Amino acid sequence: MADRVVHVIDDDEDVRQSLAFLLSTAGLAVRVHDSAVAFLQVLPEIQEGCIVTDIRMPDMDGLTLQRQLGELRPGWPVIVMTGHGDVPLAVEAMKAGAVDFIEKPFDDEVLLSAVRSALARHSKDSEREARTAAVRERIAKLSEREREVLDRLVDGKANKVIAYELGISPRTVEVYRANVMTKMQADSLSELVRMALLDGGVRR
Is residue 54 within 8 Å of 12, Cβ to Cβ? Predict the structure, then answer.
């Protein structure tokens, strides 16, 4: 989480400054933005992280920002801040993908807990995406026959069954299986299966 930034978006300067102080005091990197439009203008160049945004702002509200962000930079966790009576809007934001909403005035620890949780989740998502990309690259390097063997191994089929289905000898299956394990960098069959099933069926 050390390289993640908390982006605070609120048109109220007092709110921006108080949140920046709270988050930085807690050891978190912070960048403030005075509007959703201003944030989107610098989006291509800013550091990834978590977004804490007011739901009601002039020009572009937090919900619209969240939807645009989902198209431009999907995966960034968004926490929306709401005033009294804006809970229906916050629920709509949650349905649109926000990870949390906090009602103003809020307890400092509640906000910090929500931000830390969002950052941790984002880090895990990023790590998972990196692992999935690595697995996809390894699978792409398999030969067609190796892919066929991998698919059947993941389906739980024994070497003899795979040999019968592919019209090759069990010994040849063992050779292909060893090649697959090496190319996939898997130390065990269970690890190979986990790799191949990563991200809901990457092997297909």
Answer: yes
